[in-house]
Amino acid sequence: MTVLADDTARVVATLPAPARLAARLPLGAGPRAGIAEHRRAVRAIVEGTDDRLLVVVGPCSVHDPEAALHYARGLTAVAAEYERELLVVLRAYLEKPRSLVGWKGLLHDPDLDGGEDLAEGLRRGREFLLRAAGTGLPLAYEFVDPFLAPFLLDLVSWGAIGARTVAAQPHRQLASALPMPVGMKNAVAGEVEVAIAAARAAGVPHVFPGLGPTGAPAVLAGAGNPACHVVLRGGVLPNYDAASVGSALELLRAAGLRARLMVDASHGNSGKDHRRQPAVVAELATQVAEGRHGLMGVMVESFLEPGCQEITATPLRYGVSVTDACLGWADTLGCLDALAAAVRARRGHPRRPSPGGE
């Protein structure tokens, strides 16, 4: 282990260059074309040229790749059933943001034992994303650490910047350079304005330091990402109700942005109680069915079995989250069915001529 000159940190291991990891675990031409098509489809929904609903659904954070792939295979069939109404995207998060301390996700701790084997986590994480992409589903990913983005971003069709990092300049710069639409969550306490500011900032070009494909420090240039948008996830109070969604759409218009947004049925909007997510989805479905075209997406935390468990449990229960509590499979199917029915109803409500299509 090398001690740095100022004694503030120790080098405990080295990481492969992003290009080397990609060479070991390559994305083939077929899946690459599929991901490009998925990104186009997501972008069309964000821009309003596709009237389907974008639904990001899956576990809070992947801790068991085999269970997550089991979930993905089931979701593939459901996504095909609802493909006329919904674009279903698998939530494939491998990093877990923390307000204080705790398990930081598969990339940081792949063995769930505090070993912090980041090199092995990157290998397993990329392998999981490759296998998940092989199901044919688009993949969603929250970019928690900008340094790790180059290792995985080629596999992602929809990205997120979370509530704890949405105000950070490095994350806004990263979003400006990402090749997929990116959702900006409102801040932890619920402030929507910070997410709007993030979408505006990421929509313009930036030059910033980062990690190049060869692993060398590099100067990166983001051209600006016009497909950045706001995600309402609640805060001290929920913000999924019609008045809150309408207010956020007006704030977007006032900021000169596209008046379209996504709502997270979990986190602050469910009071961190997974059992409340179906009620949140039902309210959102009502808004969609009544003609709210600016509501273009919904996020649901879901896994094979409902609830959550401690990461220290022995043995761990299969298909149960070790982070946020999730909906089980049966309730997830009910949510997707309600959202699909709402899209069919919304198609009977022509868009109003006001900006954003509300």
Automatic annotation (TrEMBL):
What's this protein's name? Phospho-2-dehydro-3-deoxyheptonate aldolase
Claim: DNA repair is one of the keywords in the record:
no
Q: Which UniProt keywords apply?
A: Amino-acid biosynthesis, Aromatic amino acid biosynthesis, Transferase
Q: Name one GO molecular function term.
A: 3-deoxy-7-phosphoheptulonate synthase activity
**Family that this chain belongs to:** Belongs to the class-I DAHP synthase family.
The EC category is transferase
What Gene Ontology terms for biological process does this UniProt record contain? amino acid biosynthetic process; aromatic amino acid family biosynthetic process; chorismate biosynthetic process
Location of the DAHP synthetase I/KDSA domain: 44-332
Record's catalysed reaction(s) = D-erythrose 4-phosphate + phosphoenolpyruvate + H2O = 7-phospho-2-dehydro-3-deoxy-D-arabino-heptonate + phosphate
Functional note:
Stereospecific condensation of phosphoenolpyruvate (PEP) and D-erythrose-4-phosphate (E4P) giving rise to 3-deoxy-D-arabino-heptulosonate-7-phosphate (DAHP).
State the superkingdom: Bacteria
Organism of derivation: Amycolatopsis cihanbeyliensis
Q: Which InterPro entries match?
A: Aldolase_TIM, DAHP1/KDSA, DAHP_synth_1
The yes or no answer to whether the keyword Transferase is present is: yes
NCBIfam families in the record: aroFGH, PRK12755.1
Q: Which Pfam families match?
A: DAHP_synth_1
> Which Enzyme Commission number(s) are listed?
2.5.1.54
Q: Name a GO CC annotation attached to this entry.
A: cytoplasm
Named in its record, the pathway it takes part in is: Metabolic intermediate biosynthesis; chorismate biosynthesis; chorismate from D-erythrose 4-phosphate and phosphoenolpyruvate: step 1/7
